[in-house]
Amino acid sequence: MNLAAFVARIWRIQFARFAVIGTAAFVVDSMVLYGAFALGFGLYSGRALSYLAAATFTWYGNRRITFTTTRALGVRAATREWAKFLAANLAGGAVNYATYAALVNMSPLVRAYPVLGVAAGSIAGLGVNFVLSKFVVFRARPVD
């Protein structure tokens, strides 16, 4: 196997793992959103809360499963990594939330079933978040 094929294989494996974790995060996102509705949050404030919960779940899953060789060690390093993950993924989060908000605003079906907007937003932000996670948050660290 040549180097290019090897790198492509690693990318496919990482992207597949990233997508599986993202799918699980979709479930977390949806559950927190509907829980927030039950607590009196609205369509937009509930979504902000559910996104934060899903992003935290995604960060943890990706650091444990997708990008295991680049994992930060220690509580302080992990906390910095989590904050870096949230900051780096604001672009994908913005795409995600904008897609959700646009669909909730324009579609009576999505307004009645907000989980459809959550799904569309998750798919819309997937590629952006993968690239930022791989090259900004979980990039390979030099060995001391």
- Rg, nearest Å: 16 Å
Low-confidence stretches are none
The helix-strand sequence is HHHHHH
Termini gap: 29 Å
Total number of distinct structural domains: 1
**How much β-strand is present in the residues?**
under 5%
Mean pLDDT: 88
Tell me the number of helical segments per DSSP (H or I, 4 or more residues long): 6
Label the overall shape. Answer: globular
Largest sheet features: none
Percent of residues in helices:
over 70%
The number of E-state strands comes to: 0
Instruction: Supply the helix-strand structural class.
Output: mainly alpha
Characterization of this structure:
The chain is mainly alpha-helical and 144 residues long. The chain has one domain (3-137). Helix content is 83%, strand content 0%. It is built from 6 helices and no strands. It has helices spanning 3-38, 43-66, 75-88, 90-106, 108-112, 114-137. Helix 1 runs antiparallel to helix 2 (43-66), helix 1 (3-38) crosses helix 6 and helix 3 (75-88) crosses helix 6. It is globular, with a radius of gyration of 16 Å. The mean pLDDT is 88.
Which features would summarize this protein structure in a list?
144 residues, mainly alpha
Question: How do you describe this structure in short?
Answer:
This protein has 144 residues and is mainly α. It is built from six helices and no strands.
